[in-house]
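Work Package 3 (structural annotation) set out to generate three-dimensional models for the target panel prioritized at the project kickoff. During this period the team completed the workflow that converts sequence records into discrete structure tokens, so that structures can be stored uniformly alongside our sequence database. As a representative example, we reproduce one entry of 130 residues exactly as it appears in the project archive.
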Amino acid sequence: MPISSPVSKTTLWIGRVMSALPVLLVLFGSVVKLMKTASVIEGFVRAGVPERLIIPVGIIELVCVIVYVIPQTAVLGAILMTGLLGGATITNLRIGDPTYPMPVVLGMLAWGGLFLRDTRLRDLIPIRKM
């Protein structure tokens, strides 16, 4: 397996910022679900999802974020975040919510940020120069 050169400080920080955006937004979504705010309950009703699932979904989001931010498990976390955000995308599409691109963008940022900051992922998915 090829060994990547170390990540430059600039690339590392760009990757961290890219990764922080989905982390902060999913974490915020988790917290408001765990608090069962009125807007969350309304959103679940609009999406046709039973209210009893609000807390489990909030816990799932929190677990995905925690696994993603731990460097040793970040790749697994990115896989979990992809599943979570994919479910959000299809739910938004199903109910005609115009914000459906947001989870897609967050997933791209999660993987792009991880790619920039983690040499293991660069070794797994090498970008070849022409």
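The two ends are 20 Å apart (CA to CA).
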